[in-house]
Amino acid sequence: MRSIALTNQKGGVAKTTTTVNLGACLSEMGKKVLLVDLDPQGNMSSWFGLDIHSLEKSMYNVFLQEVYFEEILKDTCVHNLTLAPSNVALAGVERILANEKERDLILRKRIAPVANNYDYILLDCPPSLGLITINALTFVKEVFIPLETKVLALNGLVTLVNTVQIIKERLNHKLEVTGIIACRFDSRTNLSNEVYKQVKERFHEKVFNTIIRENVRLAECPISSKPITMYAPESSGAKDYIALAKEVVGLETTREKDMPEE
Ligand SMILES: Nc1ncnc2c1ncn2[C@@H]1O[C@H](COP(=O)(O)OP(=O)(O)OP(=O)(O)O)[C@@H](O)[C@H]1O
Ligand SMILES: [Mg+2]
């Protein structure tokens, strides 16, 4: 089992787009995949056609320890792709749990019993470094950082990598940033090329070779309630996410497959 948080405190960098489409591509390669929506915006849950305002049980109830994790799971239109949904209620969790002693460990404890049912667990994080993201980073072993290559935001990236390092030292010794993903790449602009070059110079092999190009089909995709490989299989977006999934699977041999530390 590989557990991966897709995180970047910057908004709109393609975290959700990458979680959905990478997850779907991994499922289509025969992997059992669990997607966990950790964003109160519920974008990933809406993407799969859920009416997030009428969810009876969601990650909110999991964080408050009112339900077992498996009680909230929903099947998706993709075989072997399961979703743990969220909605705006999740925003309340930070305040409700503010004084809880082991508040950083809740997610790890709640997912642990079912984690080995899956080959991949992908967590779509909110655009912040608050309690929910900390819970994600305490559970997973790997961090993928989607990066919008249309803006030079190296400072934000350094802050994020430092945060991951602090959590690694204090809460989760096995945590590693294993992949920076260049997204929304526009080869016509010097800026995209320059951003990729600078990130590669600084983070070397941590940057995936696959680049996700800017593609209007990807922007349209959420309203179809399907992943890109079903909505527009011939698009560059589908090809890029399939290539990314192959590269991710190629790293399996170099990553341990056991459970995160208790
Ligand atoms: N490769 C791409 N080509 C074109 N549009 C894209 C691409 N990737 C993402 N987008 C669009 O960019 C916007 C932001 O993407 P997304 O919602 O995945 O980002 P996010 O990091 O999850 O945002 P948030 O921080 O709000 O959760 C969306 O409108 C999405 O459709
Ligand atoms: Mg998102």
UniProtKB/TrEMBL annotation:
Sorted alphabetically, which InterPro entries does this protein's record hold? AAA_dom, DNA_Partitioning_ATPase, P-loop_NTPase
Q: Which Pfam families match?
A: AAA_31
- Sorted alphabetically, which keywords does the UniProt record give? Hydrolase
| Every AAA domain range | 1-177
Its EC number is 3.6.-.-
**Which EC class heads this enzyme's classification?**
hydrolase
Where on the tree of life does the source sit, at the highest rank? Bacteria
This protein's record includes keyword Hydrolase: yes
Q: Which GO terms describe its molecular function?
A: hydrolase activity
Carries keyword Hydrolase? Answer: yes
PANTHER family in UniProt: COBYRINIC ACID AC-DIAMIDE SYNTHASE, P-LOOP CONTAINING NUCLEOSIDE TRIPHOSPHATE HYDROLASE
- Which protein is depicted? Sporulation initiation inhibitor protein Soj
Organism of origin is Kuenenia stuttgartiensis
Q: Which gene encodes it?
A: parA
